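Subject line: Sequence and fold of a protein, written as structure tokens
Enclosed: The protein record, placed directly beneath this head.
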Amino acid sequence: MKKNKLVLWIIYGISFSAFSQTASADLVTVFLPGIVSTGYNERDMAISPDGAEMFYTIQAPRTAMSVIVHRTLNDGHWSDAEVASFSGQFSDLEAVFSKDGKKLFFVSNRPVQTGGPNKDYDIWYVEKDKQGWSNPIHAGTQINSKADEYYPSLTSDGSIYFTAERPDAVGKEDIYKSQWLNNQFQKPVNIGAGVNSKLDEFNAFVDPQERYILFGTEGGDGDLGRGDLYISYRNTDGTWTKAKNLGSPINTSRLDYCPFVYEETLYFTSERTISVSDGTQKQSLKEIKNKLDSWGNGWGDIYSVPLKSVIQLK
């Protein structure tokens, strides 16, 4: 299997216990600075199961533009970013691979029918063949509704978790699961208390084996400001434990969101900043612009941290 230069871990086990712990600050690093993380707002990472493709979103402030970009791994180096073949016309974001890598789900406000009006945000997917990726396919009305659906996340059996604004939501936006059964998605079910609350739960990544779920909440217990990442573990009866804040240095006073786990590395988006000036001397306009045009300017960058430094599964 082709691998990139990231440090990867695989943890095997039949039975396990799970708990969270605090990662040391030096383990939280910006992901490919100047390559993936730049002066633009990069968010919601997706890496293919074979490690050879990467998708992520570049989004303008206030979501004036949102496009999914694509890179491939060649001889140990990532290619230049290009707009994904299925993106660039509408507002697209939040890509995720199926277990076999043959489907890529994502979110878009594109019209369901060609020539029709732009819709609310729905879940779509593309299929891979020898020529590349297909035209986008609407994921259907079983999981999509007249309201917004966001951040699909897939389990090993093909079931899908996503966030949505629905009549049975505890808050404005809750996390739902649609079971994949008989080659179709079933009616979505609110995954319940422990995770969903009167607050907004957003950007939920579920472990493919459904052992844990990572998601964003603003104003929850231990909140450090503007939105933090939380974790909940799945009980043997299918319910979820009370969510726990991942704490510092994962979370900051800025927005921290869009979790994604690949080969035991946790990727997430953060709007944390680096100082433009250390206060020791005056900065020229050129120096200030250079720093504002680089990662750490507060627009959003992708960070990574070893998953085992955050949680342990045994």
Q: What stands out?
A: The two ends are 25 Å apart (CA to CA).
